[in-house]
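User: Okay, second chain of the day. Same drill as before: sequence in, structure tokens out.
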Amino acid sequence: MIEVKVRLLRGSVFFAGECIECEIIFTNVADGKKETCSHPCNHVNNDFSNGSNETDRLAWASAQIHCQCTVNESRVVLPTTNSRMDRTLNQISSDANASCTSFVPSRGEQGRCLLSTQPKILFCDLELAPGESRNYFYSDTIPFDGVPSYKGHTVKYSYKITVGTSRVQGHSKLLKLPVRILSLQGLGRIEQFLCKQENSHNPFLDDSNPETSLLDLAVDILTTVTSKRNSHVYNIVSGRGSIGKFCLFKSAYRIGEEIVGSFDFSESLILCLKFSVVLQSEEHIPENSRNPSKQSSDVTYSSFTSVQENCLHTKKTHLVLPIPYTACPEFVSDLVCLKWRLHFEFTIALSPLPGGDSPVQQTTPFTDNASWQGPSDIQAETMSWDLPVKIIATNPLHASSISMHRTSSTMVF
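Assistant: Same drill. Structure tokens below.
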């Protein structure tokens, strides 16, 4: 029996454009007893079958990274393509024997293979004695313009490292290890610009430039974009007057950060009884990708974190909304456009409260307590407001530390 193990050398989260490296280990875990094979194998050497029946042999092994796209067909129609990859997959699917013996990473999965790297052959005709192992290192790069890993209501993009292997005249076996890909807009152009910089020709200067990894470059970009603090103050106004002010301290956030804002109701003309804030994603479907036979909305909203507070007689307060590491940064593809927003709901009173002044206004320097009896019934209405926010990727090392994705996968056959 052969055990195949795939182990990522770093975490399970990467930037688009990064080099993904993994170690692939093949081990003969036979216990010394002759293994019975359910599939006939005509390629058997007499010396191998009689004298060394504990030795196992694999005909080939190959590795590849692919991105599978799955859609909700009731809302989205995939565009028809006639690429070489689609024609090859259709031909293999129609041939039952070829589908079992060929290396097709997306075999058995729904949807369409959106992106696939060039398959790399690990070995041909590998023979392993009992307890013997062979290690292979595989590395490949996702293009900078690749879509990020995303699981929405309408579209799903998933990346996997697939290792395929087979015995001679046997069915191929696939071992898949999911990875998460984050996209950062403009990373490819900046990396290309840095690569084109000419070295100095001064013989008295050192021409060697310190190597900067793509990960360090991406983290510098993230830090530059999200560290800019420029407070934005928004007036919250209804049809009957001012409700208050909301201040957002910056406009761009990384996944895993906290959105911090403050409310100021000190100069409000309308009493605000309660407010709630929800972090929501907006999934926009382009018109040319919608299903014409279904009358559905082109935008789908998903709620992540929320906060609410009763704010009657409150002058100032604040909110803290964490952005989960599982969230996807904003991006645009042919099938979906993902954006983020803060959805506010304010419960405001339609008339002044009959209970008199607030307890804070009733206090005097001689006493630090007061009582106030609120009315039993309050006529109120709800006002909503949406504020767009920019959410971008984060450091993959931080996301990998709390990711639920496995960093290794094993199969035995």
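The chain has seven helices and 21 strands.

User: Thanks, on to the next one.
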